């Protein structure tokens, strides 16, 4: 994988920020877009734009074909069937769709839903709300100091406004009442890679009927994901974190589950027959795609997936693993010098390219602001994972996230500039 | 280094009117839940105007400097004048340049003061 060749495909990487070269280390929030994605969407609007499915004229046929092709591309990318790929706005919407349809129908009083402390709010709040509403128990797998899922430990119970929450190790939380495991594939804060298949297997030993939803927002962009090997029933991910445009995301679900689920939203193109007194629903995936979709977004996502496939997901993972290892080594030097604290597991085999840290005595927002003055884009705050971040005893963290276009030079530059941060406040 | 104006660094390192107030007329805690910043404000009032402000809290340089500067600026103000001051006044007080991502940090203490006076 030639990173310089890849960088040349991303126009924004030629930008200057306050006179410095842009060092973009926030792909965990959103990735940058290659020329081909931007151009594909531009070209669509210039040459093909029409609403899909209904039109009999040439342009509509072209648009429809392009959307179908993009869906086939995305389906093949994750090893799924065409009709199992539902286009939504983002991973959050995909997860909410499952909570509002499958969750509403299947979660009953006395059931349990298992999540982990690693979850982004988007894979935590829908289940917290659902459990409270249904009288189900929310079980949270605790995270060790290293940022790994805890196997066994102390069990803590909380109760507030009718919701019972149990926190503990994997073994402590498993019984025959579990209906759903909702788990991230890769933590957006600590980078921890979760062995979904192993965890799902443990849960299904006691609760064979339990379903598994994987939040793939930080996983699908960064490593090969094959739903046949993942051990999941649902997979949610966002297009904009994988070189695609904002506003488009994917829910994959097993066909037999999607077929049984009620629609999430009602409206155009999701019906079979409508009368004044009733309606029947369209086949998959249209049943879940009410209204005109983000046509250009779908086509742009298709182009992004083609680009990722061309580079090769295994090569991308290898590149990020190498960068992550390099970054952890460089940052460990600063940590030894008492300058920073780094969070998460230190073995790059077990984590993706999200690297959170704090600079001693400097608030994360201030640290990020100083780095910005050097052209470095990192995120600071709670990263939409407050229960996780605060469990480390800090109000917030700085987070650098890596992707296929990042280089060792950029990490070296980051490390050098981190040293400048305390000087500003000295 | 122009990231932070000298005045902000000065107020951050030597916060004015920092500390607790015994028997305040008004007091409240305001928090920015997205980054864990928190400020506790104590006020002595006279004829509907702020006579003295003390504050405590942890936060970033911007929220700390803003609380410190406000503790001087707010003295003598009544409710209407505080409302009139506005987010714009806070940004101006901090030197006129706050990026939108930091506005919540900048206005943390101000939002608390407004709530107290209402």
How would you characterize this protein structure?
The complex is a heterodimer of chains A (426) and B (118). Chain A has 426 residues and is of the alpha/beta class. Chain A has helices at residues 3-8, 35-48, 58-78, 91-106, 125-134, 170-173, 196-206, 227-230, 255-260, 295-311, 313-336, 364-372, 386-389, 408-418, 421-425; strands at residues 16-17, 20-21, 23-24, 85-88, 112-116, 137-141, 156-160, 163-168, 178-184, 211-215, 234-238, 249-253, 271-275, 278-281, 340-342, 354-359, 376-377, 379-381, 397-401. Helix content of chain A is 38%, strand content 19%. In chain A, helix 7 (196-206) links the parallel strand 9 and strand 10. In chain A, helix 4 packs parallel to helix 5 (125-134) and helix 11 (313-336) packs parallel to helix 14 (408-418). The two termini of chain A are 42 Å apart. In chain B, helix 2 (61-73) packs parallel to helix 4 (103-117). Chain B has helices at residues 6-13, 61-73, 79-93, 103-117, and strands at residues 26-32, 37-46, 49-58. The longest helix of chain B has 15 residues, at 79-93. Chain B has a three-stranded antiparallel sheet with strand order 1-2-3, with helices on one face. Chain B contains four helices and three strands; from the N terminus they run H-E-E-E-H-H-H. In chain B, a hairpin with a 2-residue loop joins strand 2 and strand 3. The chains are: A alpha/beta (426), B alpha+beta (118).
User: What is the count of DSSP helices of chain B, taking H or I runs of 4+ residues?
Assistant: 4
Greatest contact between two chains: A-B, 19 and 20 residues
Low-confidence stretches of chain A: none
Number of strands of chain B: 3
Structural class of chain B, by secondary structure, is: alpha+beta
Proportion of residues in extended strands of chain A: 15-25%
Number of strands of chain A: 19
Helix content of chain A: 25-40%
**Rg value of chain A:** 22 Å
Shape of chain B: globular
What class do helices, strands and sheet pairing of chain A give? alpha/beta
Number of helices of chain A: 15
- Please report the distance between the alpha carbons of the first and last residues of chain B: 39 Å
Largest sheet of chain A: 9 strands, mixed
Mean pLDDT of chain A: 97
How far from one another are the termini of chain A? 42 Å
Which outline of chain A best applies?
Answer: globular
> Any idea what the radius of gyration of chain B is?
13 Å
Question: Approximately how much helix is present in the residues of chain B?
Answer: 40-55%
